[in-house]
Amino acid sequence: MIFRNTPVRWGAVSQLLHWLIVALIAVQVTLGLIGLELPLGMEKLAALARHKSIGITILALAAIRLLWRWMNPTPALPGNLLPIERFLARFTHAGLYVLLFALPLTGWIMSSARGFPVSWFNLMQLPNLVSKSGTLYHAMIEVHATLAIALGLILALHIAGALKHHFVLKDDTLRRMLPGCAPAADRSVAAADSPRKSC
Amino acid sequence: MPAFRAASALTLLTAVSVPASAHAGGRAIPYTLLHAHSSLTYTFTQAGAANHGRFNTFAVRFDPAAGRLAVVVDMRSFDTGDSQRNRILGGKDFFDVAQYPQARFTARRLIRTAHGYRAVGALTLRGITRTVVIPFTWRTADIDGREVGLLTGRTTIRRLAFGIGQGQWHSTEWVGNAVTLRYALELLPARGR
Ligand code: HEM
Ligand code: HEM
Prior knowledge:
heterodimer, A: 199 residues, mainly alpha, Fumarate Reductase Cytochrome B subunit, 5 helices, 67% helix, B: 193 residues, mainly beta, Lipocalin, 11% helix, globular, disordered N terminus, binds protoporphyrin IX containing FE
């Protein structure tokens, strides 16, 4: 197992961060929607408290992920892409990174503006980002919800892209984000490129 | 609504039956609340974070010489800064203000401490009475030419001991049991006893 990225493959750390965040986002959206539906009461309080804790976790993981990306080579996009596909890949990836920060931050601002301080799993109380304001709270609910919808749309593109690479173009784009060996074609490139094996 | 508050505080005061002190003049006088400058707040834990609330209407009668302290709180006057949460807190499962509109503390004994007193007495909240000890500092000061008594302190009570948190709210997982009360009162020598 290699931890760092190579020019052709995502390392274990990048992979772990990618799929951990995927799993947390799934839980996160579910909890957000549950929180939205429930009437005011303990279940809503519990769902939203977990939603906030996991959201803050995603924020921290996103920061680590960007830092790690900056400290590592980024595997080049596959060479078989049209300019428009290249643009779409860059645009969706950048958009996803922006949302990984913007969603938790708007949620945190929303909670602060409502006057409900945020705690991380009952272990640590976080500072309020803004002071109490009804106007800001209502604006942030809208922004948070809109960003969540944007996340859904961009993710649809992102997943469609990943599946197209795998099933239509039959290249290694999806595989290089998954644990295990890259196929022979990829391995020979990797071997030429770095003295270590790609898996 | 300062006028309203003052009026309802007065109504409350009539409910505080502190016998007039036998001592007259000097320091041996009872004090009543200077409402506009006083605060009675509480801090509770909601989902792991400290949240605050306050009572806007309450009456206090303090007579150090006679060893008396009496407080009546209009439970309908609380505010946690969030209208939805206020509706839940005022409802049956928490304060149940319709059924129990008043809370009161009546000291049985004042114990002198270095900077004030510890008042041992009965706290009635949501219809349940328990003995509690309320510590506070006490000093008198000259503010704008008049004598003012400053009573400050805090104490922690357990909400469940008073039935605050019925049904699912009996659980302390999302709303903590410990509630810290903070009081910073400005008291004036009572007149016209
Ligand atoms: C990647 C992170 C996040 C995602 C994907 C996300 C997503 C969502 C979704 C889908 C909803 C329900 C839809 C809606 O309200 O319109 C929601 C609601 C909510 N989110 Fe988030 N959220 C995230 C982070 C956070 C964080 C970090 C906080 C607070 C610290 C937060 C606070 C809230 C609150 C309070 C609501 C309920 C709003 C209401 O009262 O209706 N969220 N979130
Ligand atoms: C919450 C869901 C997701 C988020 C936030 C997310 C985010 C991202 C981001 C930001 C990148 C770019 C990495 C970089 O350039 O540093 C990426 C790459 C990738 N994602 Fe996702 N992703 C999600 C879900 C998925 C899913 C469900 C799949 C598979 C069906 C997937 C497959 C991939 C693949 C294969 C790459 C690598 C692309 C390449 O090698 O150039 N992602 N993801």
